[in-house]
Each structure stands twice: as C-alpha cells, then as structure tokens.
C-alpha cells in the first residue's frame, strides 16, 4: 500500500465523517428551538432529490459491471474514482435529508414545532426538481432506444447506461449549484443568520476541501486527470460547497455577527414568552386598583 493511496483513503473517510456530521446540527437546532424559522424549506426539499440522484450515480459507478465497463471504454481503460465512502455518504445524506425535510413538511403534526413561515417550496425549486427528473428520464429513453438498435453498441460514442448515470450526476450538480441560494437570500433579507446552523457550514467546508484533495490524489496516482472530469458530481460538490460556505461564514461572522432579527427569535431566547401565573396577574391588578 503506497503513501498516496493511504492518504487518499484517510481524506475520503474524514471528509465523509465531516460531511455526514454536517447534517446533524441543523436538524438538532430545529428541535432545540422547536421551529424552522430563519431557514427556508427550499434547501431540505431539493436536498432529498439531489442526494437520491447522487446515491444512484455513485452506486452505479462503483457496483455496476456494465457501467464500469462503459466508463473504461470512454476513459482509456481506467476505473471510476468513486469509492465506498462516497456511496455510504450519499446514503447517510439521503436519510438525514429526509428527516430534516420532515421537520418542514410535518412541522406540527410530527415534530410539534411552532408555526413558521415558508412551508411550501418555491416555484423556482419545484421547477429545478421537475427539470432534473425530466432530464434523467429523457436520457434513459435515449439509452434504451440505442440499446434496442440492431447495430452493435459502442459505449465510447453511443448513448448507454453510463449516460443515464451521468444525467443523474449532473442533476445533482445543478441542485448543488442552486440549493444554497434561497438561504443566502433569506439571511440577507433578515440581516441575520439566526436559525441557520454555522456548525454545519464549518463541517461542510472542511469536507469539501478534503473531497477535492482525495479526487486530486486519485487522479494523480492514475497519472490521468480525466478522473476529475469523469467524476463531475464530486468535483462540483466540493467546489460549490466551499464557495457557499465561505458566503455563509462572511454573513455570520462579518455582516451579521450575533444579530437576532426581529423576525427570527434568537436561539438562546424562548420562542414564546412563558405565560404568567393567573394569581400573579390578579395580585398585580389589585395593587394597581
């Protein structure tokens, strides 16, 4: 086992732990505050679809002999750079995204949260989700049509199962590029980051850096940088998360440090004022009279 292989494995598992851990702070903060105020439903909504697509594409690249053979035909006989930690991360992320999304869609019925604004995804995010699903289905139709042809299928140039995997991957790529934008806008409008967990941002930033480092190490070991272009989802995940995380950290520590907007109660403050005892109110009225 060479040093670069060991270093790549360490980066892979550490980034998996960081990214996996980053899903807990927001869900726990929502439970602690018994509210999702200060955050937008668009992020957890689109996250579910994104990680479902990421899980499907990663699992296919790692476990499907057909997809791996088609990948090798297009990339000089090399194997995909997807590893087991990528699949485990995607599976864990999907489960946690479903749990977090339920805190918005079933806030009162399941979690007994206080009412909060914004319980429906925006039209823009619904449009993104619909477009991603239609694109994957269209690619599947093209691959199925090519497979039914009487001509021999050349995966290096013809539509095939690998293209469906790539379509799912690019759907995740698009979702990654847009999913943080609504929260950035919400923070800017409220001039506050209260309700949005900064802990998840820090963990996400570290995970993004290590993810890119692992991808670079794997491609360097193979002496072929097509491993980077051949895994665009992982590349986009690292870059996009680091970019948005930087924006969130500027908002939290520079633009709106420890500021609780009137619309979003502070995390440490109770969301609703505790009711006073009836006897205390009666005594107060007697003293005033």
UniProtKB/TrEMBL annotation:
Protein's cellular compartments: Endomembrane system
Superkingdom of origin organism: Eukaryota
Membrane topology: Multi-pass membrane protein
Spans through the membrane: 44-63, 84-105, 125-143
GO molecular function, one term: L-cystine transmembrane transporter activity
Gene3D superfamilies noted in UniProt: 1.20.1280.290
GO cellular component: endomembrane system; fungal-type vacuole; vacuolar membrane
Membrane listed as a keyword: yes
Listed Pfam families: PQ-loop
Main location: membrane
InterPro entries to which the protein is assigned, alphabetical: LC_transporter, PQ-loop_rpt
Extent of the signal sequence: none
Keywords (A to Z) from UniProt: Membrane, Repeat, Transmembrane, Transmembrane helix, Transport
Name of the protein in question: Cystinosin
Organism: Ophiocordyceps australis
């Amino acid at each position: 086992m060479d040093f670069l292989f060991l270093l790549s494995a360490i980066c892979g598992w550490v980034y998996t732990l960081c990214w996996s851990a980053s899903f807990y702070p927001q869900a726990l903060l929502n439970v602690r505050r018994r509210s999702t105020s200060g955050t937008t439903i668009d992020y957890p909504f689109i996250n579910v679809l994104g990680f479902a697509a990421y899980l499907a594409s990663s699992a296919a690249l790692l476990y499907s002999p057909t997809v791996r053979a088609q990948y090798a035909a297009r990339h000089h006989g090399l194997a995909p750079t997807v590893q087991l930690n990528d699949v485990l991360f995607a599976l864990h992320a999907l489960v946690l995204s479903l749990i977090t999304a339920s805190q918005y869609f079933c806030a009162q019925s399941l979690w007994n949260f206080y009412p909060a604004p914004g319980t429906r995804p925006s039209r823009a995010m619904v449009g993104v989700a619909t477009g991603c699903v239609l694109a994957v289905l269209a690619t599947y139709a093209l691959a199925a049509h090519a497979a039914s042809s009487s001509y021999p299928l050349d995966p290096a140039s013809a539509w095939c199962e690998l293209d469906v995997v790539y379509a799912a991957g690019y759907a995740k790529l698009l979702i990654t590029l847009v999913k943080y934008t609504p929260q950035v806008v919400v923070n800017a409008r409220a001039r506050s980051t209260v309700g949005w967990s900064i802990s998840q941002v820090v963990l996400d930033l570290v995970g993004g850096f290590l993810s890119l480092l692992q991808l670079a190490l794997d491609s360097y070991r193979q002496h072929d940088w097509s491993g980077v272009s051949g895994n665009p989802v992982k590349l986009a995940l690292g870059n996009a998360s680091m970019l948005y995380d930087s924006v969130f950290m500027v908002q939290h520590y520079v633009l709106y440090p420890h500021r609780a907007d009137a619309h979003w109660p502070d995390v440490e403050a109770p969301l609703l004022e505790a009711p006073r005892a009836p006897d205390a109110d009666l005594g107060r009225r007697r003293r005033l009279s």
